[in-house]
Amino acid sequence: MDARSDSGQFGARTVLERRCRLCTAPLHHTFVDLGMSPPCESFLAADTLDNMESYYPLHAFVCEDCFLVQLPEHVSPQTIFEEYAYFSSYSDSWVAHAKRYCDTVVPRFSLGPASLVVELASNDGYLLQHLLADGIPILGVEPALNVAQTAIDKGIPTITQFFGSPLAREMVSNGDQADLIIGNNVLAQVPDLNDFVAGMALLLKPYGVITLEFPHIAKLIAEGQYDTIYHEHFSYFSLLTIEILAARHGLKVFDVDQLPTHGGSLRVYLAHVGNPVACEPSVDQLRDQERAAGLGVLETYTAFCLAARKSKKDLLSLLIALKNAGKSICAYGAPGKGNTLLNYCAIGTDFIDFAVDRNPYKHGRFTPGMHIPIRPVEALAQARPDYVLILPWNLKAEIVAQMKSIGDWGGKFIVPIPQVAEIDPKELVS
Length: 430
Hints:
By secondary structure, the chain is an alpha/beta fold.
């Protein structure tokens, strides 16, 4: 990075000039500044609570040239993913989403015993297990050793390395070229975007297809989803930005799906520029929608910080009122986004007695920064809290359906985003 020196009455200081990780333009504009926060998946064991934690800025910028929203790389992927706390299979709805995807792409792209499907960031095999059952050759790439081992135990061959152009060249030299490359919620976690996409272009057969899923920046902005910003998510995308990224590496977007997952996501379909596959009307339609929503205008992005502040104040106002009324509050889930929310809003055990999570890895640990204890889901029935704050709010329908027994003792749910709301399970129609 370039550096420039500023001097004044207090002496000289050096300011690093940040540049866009996609197009290298200088970054001058703030998208949102959520203050200092620890890495969102750095859950603490009880005997480490008195140790010093590492905090880094959650200050997202927007590029005025390509409109990529991005965080500087304060924490390396190696640090984040060496031992990862997120296992995809603990979300029933996410596994079902993966199954529906497989049922669609197998016939659409004529996948069979002679094909090769490669998933990048394959996690615990939540998706590839469905293709394995269909007899389609598969290969996962997952750098988190503890998560990858779960996939390997399921019989899913998995490379435990970070993906990029060096690994792609190695795979191709070993005879592995992909008919389909899948990347679900991984593109945002890659600090070197250009190397990652270059690797996919190398790995892809001439008439192969890439599908990428990622949260849609349009939804993030429209619904104030500031909690989806955390250190392991380096970038936040629109179709407009994805098309710029793809074109730099000889790829094109030929189709796009708008999905409800993660509060609103896109699934883009990429192919080599030389692939004669027809471009679907969905691409032009979404591009027009994004421009109409102002995603090609800088001011749309720089106004987001006001929405984040309002959401924070609304949630805190409700929690303060409930605690002043003597109500007990617990949290459901300990996801990465939840830890961004807890730390930005300074919500600790003064508000939340404890959190529960389906993932046994987190049981007995504490959330980073706010040190809220995490227990098994069964602890809710024992404590019978008045309110349960749903931190993975994108799964609220699944969670409310699973936990409707909370209504048996008069308990209610709180959903923090897109608007702070209370849900009474007794009032829901079965």
